[in-house]
Amino acid sequence: MEKLLGLPVLASKHGQDVDSFIIYIHWLMILLFVGWLAFFCWTLFRFRRSNHPKADYVGAKGATSTYLEVVVAIIEAVLLIGFAIPLWAKRVDEFPSEKEATVVRVVAQQFGWNFIYPGPDGEFGRQEFNLLTPSNPLGQDKNDPKSKDDVTTLNDMHVPVDKPVIVHLTSKDVIHSFKVIAMRTTQDAIPGIRIPTWFTPTREGRYQINCAQLCGNGHYNMSLGFMTVESAEKFDTWVKEKSKTGAASFE
Amino acid sequence: MQTTTKDHHDVHEHAHHEQSFFQKYVFSTDHKIIGIQYGVTALAFLFMGFCLMLMMRWQIAYPGKPLPLVGTLLEKVLGTVAAGGVMSPDLYNSFGAMHGTIMVFLAIVPLAFAAFGNYVVPLMIGAPDMAFPRINMVSYQCYAVGGVIMFVSFFIPGGAAQAGWTSYSPLATAIPTQGQTFWLVGMIFLITSSLLGAVNFIATIIQLRAPGMTWMRLPFFVWAQFVTGFLLLLAFPPLEAAGIMQLMDKVAGTSFFLPTGLAVGGELANVSGGGSPLLWQHLFWFLGHPEVYVLILPGMGIVAEVLANNTRKPLWGYKSLVYSVLAIGFISFIVWAHHMYLTGMGTKISTFFQTTTMIISIPSVIILTCLFITLWGGSIRFNTPMLFALAFLPMFGIGGLTGLPLGFNFSDLHLHDTYYVIAHFHYVVAPGTIFALFAGIYFWYPKMTGRMMNEFWGKVHFWLSLIFMNLVFQPMFAQGMAGMLRRMVDGGANYSQVMAPDAIGNLTTGIMGMNRHISWAAVCLGLAQIPFIINLFWSMRNGKKVESDNPWEATTLDWQTPTPPPHGNFAAQPSAHRGPYEYSAPGAAKDFSPQNQTA
Amino acid sequence: MDIPYTVAPRQDTGLYNAKVGIWLFLASEVMLFGALFSSYILLRVGAEPGMWPHGLLNIPIGTFNTAVLITSSVTVVLSWAALKTHNFGRFRAIQSITLLCALGFLGIKTYEYNEKFTHYEVWFADGRPSVTGHIDGAGRFWTLNTLADKKIESITMHPDRFHYRIPSGEQAKLAKSGTVPEHPEPIKIATSEIKRLSAFVPAHSTYFAVYFTLTFLHALHVFGGALVIGYLWGPGASMWKTDPDRFTNRIEVSGLFWHFVDLVWIFLFPVLYLL
Amino acid sequence: MADSHDISKTVRKYIIVFVALLVGTAITVGMYYVHLPSVAMTVMVAVFIASVKAFLVAGYFMHLIDERKMIYGILGSTAFFFVGLMFLTIWAMHDFPAHTFLGSHVP
Ligand code: HEA
Ligand code: HEA
Ligand code: CUA
Ligand SMILES: [Cu+2]
């Protein structure tokens, strides 16, 4: 069924749930469609005028259709209550604890992605968009000691494999949307509000970050952002490296 | 001024003046003329929306290549946005936004609701005209003005609106050109037109039903129009409010939809801030969702009429149909946020909207089921209107069923803003509503002109349309499932394996290749309309003359008038003595018993 | 065939056409103003605490205008009652009061608007609290750009007694205590110190954006209503001779619209002026 | 209705409503100057008085008190949708995923 639907490569934990859920729904859809289509064709064939010159005033009798509608309703209810609601609740209510996760702040802009890592101290410095200037594009409060070791990158995101990633997402200008297809994650980046989302990458490699919301004439071109999933060691070295250069630029 | 009086069956007919061409065809207050005005204008816009889309499809299939045939023309007319005959991203976004806007607000709604509604509803309920003929005329004029404003906006510096038909703030205000301003002003006119139209339709249906035409004797089409009227009446004003606010943001520098700390182009924007971008989305989709039912309900109504007529039997489950359509009307006001699942939703609100979305799919299932079962036991005539009406059913079925995975937050996670969504809604509006409208045109054409459209070319039109519609939209499901995003100037090339061969999960060449197939299928789809267009004009003079006023042997009152119906519609006040679909009634002499037949 | 029920009510609904029409139209108006109201509530609830402007409108004038509108509402219904008793002269007389009220309302509104356009707020670049007041020699709608264009290097501002940051209860207490002078000393502000300058225009803040949008839309409705009532009072009144019942219906329908406009104001006034 | 005795009675009714409306306005404004203990209370009283006034205008000037069922139906559904719009929008704007920050001041 995955093949039939053509679902793309999967590389995150919860993505398995997404895929299975999509597959269940498509089973229901295909069942309904094929069933109805068969009935439809058969009816058209059987009751064509040449075969059935005099129409029957009453038509179909019995309550089969009512049962059918009830069954559809029940299946939908099961999908809804059994899967959709709890699965979504898990996405938005049960975040992994920040201690056990890689936390990244993502700030979208026309037309690129800014990433902020807390650096070795594990804490983000203060950020306020009213502080934003061309030389301080992310509105970081440079007097806050915690910002000293924060790492900022443009279009270059690194995360360790097999560890939850929490992305705090916002935008400086218009609405964008952070989407990594293989991670089965999508979340709009909306200015004036910072929304978290999370996923656990399960496969090392390079992934392209899609901007999934029309954000201007460069929307199609907002494709330079990549996410590199790598081993924990590699990731740590990367952060340390970046943190040094980042701190230097603060002086 | 000379007056003429006609005498029909000894009944004194309403005296009316000899009218000039302008009075008769431009400033007419006759619902039939206004219906035709709407129809012609809307078809022209349908054609325009299609042309915009063809140019976009070329760009998607062959990114960066100059447009064939029209490239140089575009460059001449529009300037640098089409430099070298190549579509720039700005132009693509304009065309995308305007394709959506034109198709929805200037083509389908005016055609389905206003044109068919105007022509057919008063006839069906046995009324001489709409309740407020002059308001009807103003309504058309507002529509025309709105259309002109939208059209003109292509030619202003910077071109038409570029923020999608959804016009999300802050993008809509952040784009420096004035296209959005035109869009907003145009929309205010279109909304006014729809509101006046809605008031008129509802009042007409409530007040002008002929004696004996009780609510449960109304043809289903009238019910569909009635509910559609309410959807327009109550869902459009919030968009109007939002439009006014966005207009203020655009021209008066307010911040209704702009949050504090907004920085466009790296500098803090010079606005007070304090607004909310999500507020726009709520107000837009509060209209947006009911609007999609505005697109489909009249179509369903037409299909129901055609089905009953050509199966020669009553609609199955008339009452369920009526209650379902009422239920759709009610619930459609409380599902809107399913378009906003990925703006960030907590469990509670997401649960609410998922639940209502699933609930609203049930009445749709019921309607489709009733229409299906209507076929059972019929004596089915396969004429052109019937073919289109029949095709509507599975096509709407595909569109509707694919709404289900979008209706769950958790699966929308993967599908949101991909071509899956595009395919979903085009299946409902293009092979769905457009087919229903074709059915309606073929069906009521003899009433409007006194001549039939050509059957053979009608069938050619049908089969070609059916095939190419599916060739256009079916592959889009696959593309969407693979993660191809909508509103991409390059058709997703930047996210393909060609651009980044090492990136995992990028679009394969197979998926990318479909772009070209789809585009050529769209070209063929356009060519398939040629028989229709020729047929439409040719039959006006040369079509087979109808032998009676009721060529389809239909039961509803619209067929019990002279052809074409005169000013005032009926020679004498008709009255209804039975339900709308008394076909093949046991004991009746003929296989149809018109509603106004006494015994 | 003629269109039925243009004058006499239809049996089963008990209504004539225009009445159904106007109520439907009013339903859509409810949604229009309702959406704006909802937006207002949302923006207000979402505003940063303490930063929502209040007490900046002229309450006595607003109260007076409310009374004007209420008066016009009662005269509209009385004029209709006069027609019901076939007293056309009385109708004309009473309805002319309505028209005067409508003009009065619009005139007063214009005055109020104009007052706002020359009342300013200055935000400072160094982040100290902003100041509201009047600026010597300033016209309407000045912004920082105006100062730059006119090459004005500093302005003299006469601050208001209280800034809207201070809650109204607090203001009353302070006023009683006498620690704050009634007319604070004018202050001189260099243009270079100013981060933002805005009159009380829509762009000033979401509050004024809401205020102007809602009241202007309302004023448009008053204007439209007045046009219709004026037409029916003047040239349209000739129908009284030809078709008095229909004319009375028209007055009723235009009156329904007018009452609705009044009703909107009944909510707008406390919400915008007092809360 | 056309009965002139009836009319003079209704005219009296209109005048009473008119006075009530003026009194309501006066109370609302007065309340502003006396400063009720809490903002919530001020809002509640103000909205309550406005609603009473609205009821008077709609009920008597617009004759809603003895209007037809059809009109009630139209207005009832309008009220339903209006409440839906307002309530659901406000609800949605207060229910985000856990740990969402609203506003541009983020820690
Ligand atoms: C006429 C228009 C129309 C109709 C009727 C519908 C009907 C439905 N739509 Fe669709 N929708 C749109 C037009 C329409 N939609 C548009 C234009 C958009 C995109 C807007 C944009 O972003 O630009 C959209 C987007 C859209 C989204 C947002 C997706 C996203 O952006 O991520 C969602 C999510 O819930 C959705 C859901 C639904 C559902 C559940 C229905 C249900 O009502 C469907 C119910 C119907 C059925 C369940 C079918 C029943 C049939 C059978 C059981 C028989 C089948 C078998 C045979 C016929 C053989 N739609
Ligand atoms: C009612 C609505 C409607 C209709 C009917 C259509 C019809 C079609 N649409 Fe469109 N579409 C939208 C509404 C509609 N669309 C919307 C809302 C969007 C989203 C916009 C956005 O992103 O903001 C969209 C976006 C959209 C896209 C995605 C663009 C992108 O995301 O980048 C594509 C891509 O292929 C597309 C294609 C088509 C095609 C091939 C048709 C075909 O089905 C067209 C079929 C029509 C014809 C074949 C015309 C027939 C003409 C006549 C019969 C004329 C006769 C004339 C005379 C007699 C004078 N549409
Ligand atoms: Cu950023 Cu699209
Ligand atoms: Cu929807």
N- to C-terminal separation of chain D?
68 Å
> Biggest interface: chains and residue counts?
A-B, 100 and 104 residues
Stretches of chain B where pLDDT falls below 50 for ≥5 residues? 1-16
Looking at the chains present, what oligomeric state does this protein adopt?
heterotetramer
Query: How many DSSP helices of chain B?
Result: 18
**Secondary structure category of chain B:** mainly alpha
Shape label of chain B: globular
Low-pLDDT stretches of chain D: none
Structural summary, described in words:
The complex is a heterotetramer of chains A (251), B (599), C (275) and D (107). Chain A has 251 residues and is of the alpha+beta class. Chain A is built from 4 helices and 12 strands, in the order H-H-H-E-E-E-E-E-E-E-E-E-E-E-E-H. Chain B is an all-alpha fold and 599 residues long. In chain B, a hairpin with a 2-residue loop joins strand 5 (263-264) and strand 6 (267-268). The longest helix of chain B is centred in the first third of the chain and has 37 residues, at 89-125. Chain C has a 5-stranded antiparallel beta sheet with strand order 4-3-2-1-5, with no helix packed on it. In chain C, strand 1 (120-124) and strand 2 form a beta hairpin. In chain C, helix 3 (88-117) runs antiparallel to helix 6 (206-233). The longest helix of chain C has 31 residues, at 244-274. Chain C starts with 16 loop residues before the first helix and ends with a helix. The relative contact order of chain C is 0.16. By secondary structure, chain D is mainly alpha-helical. Chains A and B meet through helix 2, helix 3, strand 7, strand 8 and strand 10 of A and helix 4, strand 5, strand 6, helix 9 and helix 11 of B. Strand 9 (193-199) of chain A pairs antiparallel with strand 1 of chain D. The structure holds heme-A (2 copies), dinuclear copper ion and copper (II) ion (CU). One heme-A (HEA) sits between chains B (166, 292, 295-296, 338-339, 357, 360-361, 364-365, 368, 393-394, 397, 400-401, 403-404, 406-407, 412, 416-417, 421, 424-425, 428-429) and A (32-33, 36-37, 40).
